[in-house]
């Protein structure tokens, strides 16, 4: 049997405060592997390319079918999900790095909580809780539902924030993902009841919508093909109108 | 009302870049083009501009104050970005980077240009064809002027493109694509006008 191997170079880090370092691995090849199964192989036998025993590489994963976003990392320079990164399609040595826009917890695991906090900030849900049954909500036209479905594919993976030049340690920018969710929930017939509130959060909060510099990397990087830049431009129009309403007053509150 | 004025400042920055600063740029480049018709036509045109009523008021409110705000806040914006064109070498990401680079170049160029012409005029020098001809007699100054003019027209044209997005005028990818072509046309036209004019001062 020929000894075909897979070469990996992994950027590792012991904990949040320690310096990153690179470690090389050489693992036996099997057919149809993805980056996750390569990392599992390292976990099974944590020996680096020099033959020295080492610690297993830490990484995050959950759904293994590119809908949860947990296994996102930088693979050969580009952020993407490691579950759909097939070894046969990658140039070797395969370089794995954590998405450094987020705090690195250990090795390839990052803390994406800033994204979840952003979703809370913008109220990325439809508030329906109350003390009595409100009955069914208004119907949504089918064409609009199909359009909204595209926006709802967002899995909060963080790839768009990693690709954005304006999301960094010098800026508070909320990033494209949460902005597009505002568009989604403002388009929902019941969610629209909180439209002004969501828009005002994007206008008043630190690092809001206006921090976007239109580099449009996000829309290129998004693994789900979400029209992020269209959402941002549409929100620019809506917040502009909202700012006029706020300044001059309005008798049209919906 | 919130205490965070970022939204307002960003919108103001975008607006001032086009009105009045961009509008002034077009007027300025158009008047310069008189140089192509010879020293007399140019001197007559600058003389007309110099003698406009409310000149100082217009200079301050339509040029200097908006320009200073746009420049200072623009520097803040420019240095907030962490460029990543090596990883994401997309056209728009390059435009994003060039917009910030040219912004800094234009600030330096305009400061030098105002010092040499407007400040000199305030100190008694006469602004005419000869003044510019003497400046660009030096080949280095001519090259710097050509770089400065091109950076300015690029920054304005590309700024028009993002202005349309910032104010929610172009939303769909197709409208933004068309805006790219239109602003490219603006860039080419203004660069031609600017460079043809500055070359008219050379020998």
TrEMBL record, chain A:
It holds the Pfam family Fer4_8. Belongs to the succinate dehydrogenase/fumarate reductase iron-sulfur protein family. GO terms for biological process: respiratory electron transport chain; tricarboxylic acid cycle. InterPro entries: 2Fe-2S_ferredoxin-like_sf (IPR036010), 4Fe4S_Fe-S-bd (IPR017896), 4Fe4S_Fe_S_CS (IPR017900), Beta-grasp_dom_sf (IPR012675), Helical_ferredxn (IPR009051), SDH/FRD_Iron-Sulfur (IPR050573), Succ_DH/fum_Rdtase_Fe-S (IPR004489), Succ_DH/fum_Rdtase_N (IPR025192). Its EC number is 1.3.5.1. Its cofactor is [3Fe-4S] cluster; [2Fe-2S] cluster; [4Fe-4S] cluster. GO terms for molecular function: 2 iron, 2 sulfur cluster binding; 3 iron, 4 sulfur cluster binding; 4 iron, 4 sulfur cluster binding; electron transfer activity; metal ion binding; succinate dehydrogenase (quinone) activity. Residues 145-173 form the 4Fe-4S ferredoxin-type domain. Keywords: 2Fe-2S, 3Fe-4S, 4Fe-4S, Iron, Iron-sulfur, Metal-binding, Oxidoreductase, Tricarboxylic acid cycle. This is succinate dehydrogenase. It is an enzyme of class 1 (oxidoreductase). Transmembrane segments: none annotated. It comes from the Bacteria.
From TrEMBL, chain B:
Heme binds at residues 28, 70, 113, 155. Its main location: membrane. CDD domains: SQR_TypeB_1_TM. Keywords: Heme, Iron, Membrane, Metal-binding, Transmembrane, Transmembrane helix. GO terms for cellular component: membrane. GO terms for molecular function: metal ion binding. InterPro entries: Cytochrome_b-558 (IPR011138), SQR/QFR_C/D (IPR034804), Succ_DH_cyt_b558_Firmicute (IPR016002), SuccDH_FuR_B_TM-su (IPR000701). It is found in: Membrane. It holds the Pfam family Sdh_cyt. The keyword Transmembrane applies. This is Succinate dehydrogenase. It comes from Salipaludibacillus keqinensis.
């Amino acid at each position: 049997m020929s000894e075909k191997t897979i070469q990996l170079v992994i950027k590792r880090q012991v904990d949040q405060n320690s310096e990153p370092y690179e470690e090389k691995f050489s693992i036996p090849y099997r057919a149809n592997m993805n980056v996750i199964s390569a990392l599992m192989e390292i976990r099974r036998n944590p020996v680096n390319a020099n033959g020295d025993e080492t610690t297993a590489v830490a990484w995050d994963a959950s759904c293994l079918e590119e809908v949860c976003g947990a296994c996102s990392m930088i693979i050969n320079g580009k952020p993407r999900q490691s579950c759909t990164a097939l070894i046969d399609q990658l140039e070797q040595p395969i370089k794995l790095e954590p998405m450094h826009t987020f705090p690195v917890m250990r090795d390839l695991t990052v803390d994406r909580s800033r994204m979840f906090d952003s979703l809370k900030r913008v109220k990325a849900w439809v508030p329906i809780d109350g003390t009595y049954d409100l009955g069914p909500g208004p119907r949504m036209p089918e064409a609009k539902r199909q359009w909204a479905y595209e926006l709802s594919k967002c899995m909060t993976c963080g790839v768009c924030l990693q690709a954005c030049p304006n999301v960094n340690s010098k800026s508070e920018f909320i990033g494209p993902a949460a902005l597009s969710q505002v568009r989604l929930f403002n388009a929902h017939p019941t969610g629209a009841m909180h439209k002004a509130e969501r828009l005002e959060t994007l206008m008043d909060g630190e690092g809001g919508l206006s921090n976007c510099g239109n580099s449009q990397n996000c829309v290129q990087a998004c693994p789900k093909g979400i029209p992020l830049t269209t959402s941002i431009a549409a929100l620019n129009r809506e917040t502009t109108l909202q700012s006029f309403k706020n300044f001059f007053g309005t008798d049209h509150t919906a | 009302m919130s205490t965070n004025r970022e939204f307002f400042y960003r919108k103001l920055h975008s607006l001032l870049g086009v009105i009045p600063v961009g509008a002034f740029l077009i007027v300025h480049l158009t008047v310069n083009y008189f140089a192509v018709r010879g020293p007399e036509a140019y001197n007559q045109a600058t003389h007309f501009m110099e003698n406009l009523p409310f000149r100082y008021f217009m200079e301050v409110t339509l040029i200097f104050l908006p320009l200073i705000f746009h420049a200072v806040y623009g520097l803040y914006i420019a240095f907030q970005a962490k460029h990543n064109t090596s990883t994401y070498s997309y056209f728009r990401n390059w435009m994003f980077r060039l917009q910030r680079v040219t912004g800094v170049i234009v600030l330096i160029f305009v400061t030098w240009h105002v010092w040499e012409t407007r400040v000199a005029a305030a100190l008694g020098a006469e602004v005419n064809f000869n003044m510019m001809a003497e400046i660009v007699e030096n080949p280095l100054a001519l090259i710097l002027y050509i770089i400065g003019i091109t950076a300015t027209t690029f920054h304005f044209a590309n700024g028009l493109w993002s202005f349309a997005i910032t104010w929610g005028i172009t939303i769909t990818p197709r409208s933004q694509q068309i805006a790219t072509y239109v602003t490219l046309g603006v860039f080419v036209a203004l660069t031609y006008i600017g460079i043809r004019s500055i070359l008219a001062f050379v020998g």
